[in-house]
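Input chain follows. Return structure tokens only.
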Amino acid sequence: MGRWILVGFAVAVALVCSQFPAYRQDYLQRLGGALDEVTRQVQALDARAAAADLERYAYVRRLTGNPDPVVAREGEALVDLLARQQRLIRAQAELEAAPIYYQAIQVALHLEPDIAAAAFQDFEPAAPLSLSGGFHAFVGFFLGLLLPQGLRRLFPRRVPVEG
């Protein structure tokens, strides 16, 4: 009976893991949309800087160095915007280039919580008919077999001492 429970658990973990490629695709699409929006905002920033006859970073430095706290906070928001654009560009490039065996790790390394939550909220399971889906199902099956054994080793049963 215990083996059937273990195999059932392993199959359940395999099914969950097989969904990762579909989730990754949804995440990448949302990441691309976020990058498009941030890029539009940076283009608007560049237009405002050009209208002030300044280069982008000189414009932002002028705002952040302003003694008016409202203007300085606006400058800090622009610094955050530029940093987010670079982070999203790097994440998109690395997620798209990741080999199958490294995709889940890359998602974890470049996770944008707001994008991940939105992708998860709208996620619908898909049939894992791709090489990536098969790989992740295979890995999930073995994780499902090994996880209970590892937990048993970490938390062994304590036999009550009769006294």
